[in-house]
Amino acid sequence: MIVSLNWLKQLTDIDIPIKDLATLIGARLVEIEDVVDLGVKYKNVIIVKVISAEKLKDSDHLSVVKIDDGGITQDVERDDQGYIQVVCGAPNIKTDQFVVWLPPKSIVPETYNSTEPFVLSSRKLRGVMSNGMIASARELDLFDEHDGILELDVNVAKPGTPFATVYELNDCLLDIENKSLTHRPDCFGIIGFAREVAAIQDKKFKTPDWLLNLEPDLNDLSDKNMNLSVAIDDSSLSDRYQAIVMSGVDASKKSPLQVQTYLARVGIRPINAVVDVTNYLMLLTGQPLHAFDYDKLVAVAGDKPDIHVRAGYKDEKLELLDGRIINLTTEDIVIAAGKTAIGLAGAMGGANTEIDNNTKNIIIESATFNLYNLRSTQMRHGIFSEAITRFTKGQPADLTAPVLAAAVHLMSKWSGAICASNVAEAYPVNQTLPIIEFTANLINNILGSEFDVDNIINILENVEFKIEREGETIKATVPYWRADIHIVEDIAEEIGRLTGFDNINPTLPRRNFVAVRPTEFDDFRKKLRKILVRAGANEVLTHSFVHNDILQKANQDSNNSYRIANSISPSLQYYRQTLTPSLLNLVNSNIRQGYENFALFEINKSHKKQDGMTNENVPVESEMLALTIANKNTKSGASYYQAKKFLDYLCKTVGLSVTYKPVKPEMNEPLSAPFEYRRSAIICDRATESQIGIVGEYRKSVTKGFKLPEYVAGFEIDVCQLFDACRDLSKSYKPLSRYPVSYRDICLQVSNDVNFNQIINNIEDTLDSIDLETEISPVDIYQAKDNMVKNITIRIKLFAYDHTLTSDEVAEVINKVVDSAVVKINAKVI
After folding, report:
1. Candidates 2.60.120.10, 2.40.50.140, 2.30.130.10, 3.90.1150.10; CATH matching 40-166
2. How far apart, in Å, are the Cα atoms of 127 and each of 52, 122, 124, 792?
3. How many CB atoms are closer than 10 A to CB 360?
4. Is residue 313's pLDDT more than 60?
5. Domain residue ranges of the chain, discontinuous segments joined by +
6. What is the third-level CATH fold of 742-829?
């Protein structure tokens, strides 16, 4: 954002050097990236009067011009009357004009900052001597208009007056880094910025009376011969919408050149009086305006001047002023004439109501819109105009009326238009000004300062807070343009900022500092990380917010996700329900980087609407752990077992015994949504049978959506439930046995409807009753094609801490396992 120093000086006194001012603003308001001396490029550029302009012989466009510079230019050839000769090719040159002349040896302003500045001289053109040049707006580096010379709209009494003096171009431009002003919409207008500049110099500021008149009466100015109605269909989209019709507009008229120069120096291209009025007031007040062609709007609405503020329809199309045709969504706010969209609210008007040279009647819009919707619109459609930049900061509804009144006045003055209707208004959300009570002692306790009551009142009155004092109590009424002030801490921050936080004497706190000891849960999470890293997995950290596309690819319903109203990016609009989609979104990119076989894991929080809110009215958080394995080169085998291997190692290391249960087809939880239920299992604590998570392979649609390899699987578990299960375990250390280990393999033939987990559970239940140390692991699964049975081989590890097992002891254990399998799962030993 560019701020003109001269424009600030029109509103407040500035009596310190620009360097000191920039430092002060940087310390107490906003960072200044650069200070540009605008006037240096206009050195020696003067205003002259055209005495005569005669066509050059044998030329179809050149004229020989005699100009009067008041005799101030040295070392230039003059005629007997003291006039200077210039050859000019502009078609609009004529006698008695006041124009801008660049003398010999001066630099053309347009080229001033280029690598090769163009220095003028005296030279012959078509055999006629020409001294310097008469400049166009583009050559003066004002704006891009090169159809002819710049015709001045002031009659200078004395030719030779410096151009920069008359048009206040001896100026400095402050290049503002405005990201830190996101909460301050008032500072996006010159008036608001000047108020802050006055306050940080400890000077009182007076807002212009017209901007404080929140209920201006424009109806007396209206001929009332045109109708207009407005409506806000959804009050969450707009706090206030005002519009008025003006007739007799001459769209070919220009705004005053002084105004054009101020627009141009801060980066706005002057166009015509109508557009310049809206831009000028936007820069002055921070309130964007828009103008529609009234007759085009009525035609679009079916001969009824009816404006609606509504949400866009899905796949609704709108052609913008820049020629683009965009697809609207229900997140966009549109201005509609009848049922037809005519503008993208706060961002850009539609081509179907564009003002052109044939426009005679216009509608001026002054409104506020939901800043969160507009931030989404801004990113989705790539519109970063000056208007939407201000709307996304949250303009106050009270600002619309005085700015609309000022627009009517200037439109009448600059374009010859007159009011043709009453003000049409929709105001569903009426604003009230907050009143904050506090004492000087409270402010000093917050800041560590020593302000007295009079100091505080003076500081706040400088920025136009209305103050009432009752003894030691101060009541501050917040101005309507300060939507960022809500509580006494905001008042304290305001006082500290305006006087300079660096002026507060730093003192050490008087309380003791004790380092925060990690909780048992923190240590547990740290332990989980170490275990998985030791197992060969790689930890990642992803955003807690995801795009709707990721939820859809993971087969999750976005309606179960909290939506971020003010998301910083369209790709970060929703809270994630689980961690798995975030991991899956990283698999393909890692494979493309050359990593063909890897495991990724993350321990982080997730949020689901179905979990509800806490007693503090914030979403319930779930601490989750997710892991995904992928292998680009493996085409065969079940990836489920690779993921389960990581899980079993994790559970074994923390000392937890788990069991696996089938996933029911009708299960439709966010946790299970990405997983293929036929090739997945529910993870349960074996002792309590409480569900901890899920492990398995992913659905074909998920694999396709995330462009995953064939060999991919993973698991996701609730860390809190895992922690609770492990906390109840007895913590007893057992050293390695000094005695030999015995291994036995058992091959069981079972029916197809008996799953692997049933066999494992049966064997574990049997081994639990034996006073020996045991471990079991799968060896293989074999099933012939179209066979109704399958062979599953299990390896059992046996050992004791106090003796070497005999063959009879081992045989007894194996017999018990076999007998139980035969009886309970109808198995047959092969």
Report:
1. 2.40.50.140
2. 19, 12, 5, 106
3. 14
4. yes
5. 2-35+177-201, 40-166, 219-426, 435-503, 520-727, 742-829
6. Alpha-Beta Plaits (3.30.70)
Domain 520-727 is of which CATH architecture? Answer: 2-Layer Sandwich (3.30)
* Segment holding 166, helix H or strand E: helix 163-166
**Cα–Cα distance measured from residue 697 to residue 466, given in angstroms and rounded to the nearest whole number:** 65
pLDDT digits over 184-201, tens only? Answer: 999 999 999 999 999 999
Asked if 2-35+177-201 and 435-503 have one fold, the answer is: yes
Burial 619-650 (b: 16+ CB within 10 A, else e): bebbbbbbbbbbbbeeeeeebbebbbebbebb
CATH-assigned architecture of domain 435-503: 2-Layer Sandwich (3.30)
Instruction: Name which of 402, 396, 403, 353 is nearest 371 in CA terms.
Output: 396
CA distance 29 to 499: 11
Other CB atoms within 10 A of residue 23 CB? 13
DSSP state of 117: -
Closest CA to 569 of 380, 374, 333: 380
Q: Residue 732: is its pLDDT beyond 60?
A: no
Decide: 797 and 743 in contact? Cβ < 8 Å.
yes
Look at residue 219 in the predicted model and tell me its pLDDT.
66
pLDDT tens, 399-441? 999 999 999 999 999 998 999 999 999 998 777 889 999 999 9
Average of per-residue pLDDT across 27-42: 94
Q: How far apart are CA 703 and CA 710, in angstroms?
A: 8
Residue 21 reports pLDDT greater than 70: yes
- Interatomic CA distance for residues 408 and 613, integer angstroms: 49
The helix or strand, by DSSP H or E, that contains position 96, with its residue range, turns out to be none
User: What does the pLDDT average to over 534-561?
Assistant: 94
Total residue count of the chain as it appears in this document: 830
- Would you state the pLDDT for residue 730? 61
Fold of 219-426: Phenylalanyl-tRNA Synthetase; Chain B, domain 3 (3.50.40)
Cβ 214 vs Cβ 401: under 8 Å = yes
**In sequence order, what are the residues at sequence separation of 6 or more whose Cβ sits closer than 8 angstroms to the Cβ of residue 161?**
46, 47, 70
Residue 733 — pLDDT band, cuts 50, 70, 90? low
Strand ranges for 499-554 from DSSP E: 538-539, 545-546
319-342: average pLDDT = 94
Residue 57, C-beta contacts closer than 8 angstroms, at least 6 positions apart:
none
Neighbours of 681 (CB within 10 A): 24
Task: For 472-523, write each residue's pLDDT tens digit.
Answer: 999 999 999 999 999 999 999 999 999 999 999 888 777 777 888 899 999 9
Residue 365: pLDDT over 90: yes
Sheet strands (E) in 729-799 = 742-751, 773-782, 789-799
The answer for residues whose C-beta is within 8 angstroms of residue 764's C-beta and 6 or more apart is 657, 659, 686, 776
Asked if residue 383 lies in contact with residue 344, where contact means CB atoms within 8 angstroms, the answer is yes
pLDDT digits (tens, 9 = 90+) for 610-656: 999 998 888 999 999 999 999 998 877 789 999 999 999 999 899 89
Reference 676, options 649, 647, 704; nearest CA is 704
Give 563-622 as a 3 state SS string: ECCCCCCHHHCEECCCCHHHHHHHHHHHHHCCCCEEEEEEEEEEECHHHCECCCCCECEE
Q: pTM for this structure?
A: 0.71
Determine how β-strand 424-426 pairs with β-strand 317-319. unpaired
Q: Are 335 and 301 in contact (CB under 8 A)?
A: no
Return the structure tokens found at 367. Answer: 């409104």
Indicate the fold that domain 2-35+177-201 takes in CATH: Phenylalanyl-tRNA Synthetase; Chain B, domain 1 (3.30.56)
pLDDT higher than threshold 90 for residue 84: yes
